[in-house]
Amino acid sequence: SIDYPEIGFIRGEVKYYIRERIDEKVRFYDEIDSSVIVVKLIPGMSADIFDYIADRYHAVIIESFGVGGLPYYENDQFVEKIEKLIKKGVRIVITTQVPHEGSDMGVYQVGLRIKQKYELPEAYDMTTETVVAKVMWALPQCKTATEFSKIFNTPIGNDII
């Protein structure tokens, strides 16, 4: 994570470690699912983009406004489209477009409603690249949304701090 505290630094050719390194046993996986898309929300965006995604992808990573805001145009269009994705078995992860902030869907009304209703996993302080890789890795290991959320929310290599 870009916000992970420094583990050390280099001065010339001398390496200084200020934190202990974690030497976890390496495990290899031979299956990933690359049917993942990232959607960066923009003002005025229509929720209809999710109809296209529902028929073509196994997972969508939504880059929300701020730390977890989703558009609300005096209707529940985004909530309804997200519900349709969930019913089709598409896994959804909410992240933020804001570096160094981390996601928190509880801050804004629409994000909070969706979080409470569907218990979607959040990326918290993970970078988008980390989220994409983790989702591709987690998809083949899970049969249910609950399994997916559990695996996604398990820290690996300090990806969630």
List the helices and strands and how they pair.
Layout: E1 8-11, E2 14-17, E3 36-40, H1 49-54, E4 59-64, H2 77-87, E5 91-96, H3 109-118, H4 128-138, H5 145-152
Parallel strand pairs: 3-4, 4-5
Antiparallel strand pairs: 1-2
Helix pairs in contact: 2-3
Write up what this structure looks like.
The protein has 161 residues and is of the alpha/beta class. 29% of the residues lie in helices and 16% in strands. The protein contains 5 helices and 5 strands; from the N terminus they run βββαβαβααα. Strands 3-4-5 form a 3-stranded parallel beta sheet, sandwiched between helices. Helix 2 links the parallel strand 4 (59-64) and strand 5 (91-96). It is globular.
List keywords for this structure.
alpha/beta; 161 residues; globular; three-stranded parallel sheet; two-stranded antiparallel sheet
Summarize the structure in short:
With 161 residues, the protein is of the alpha/beta class. The protein has five helices and five strands. It is 29% helix and 16% strand.
Strand fraction band?
15-25%
Structural class label: alpha/beta
Portion in helices: 25-40%
Measure the end-to-end span: 8 Å
Mean of the pLDDT scores? 80
Number of contiguous helices: 5
- H/E element order: EEEHEHEHHH
| Quantity of strands, as a count | 5
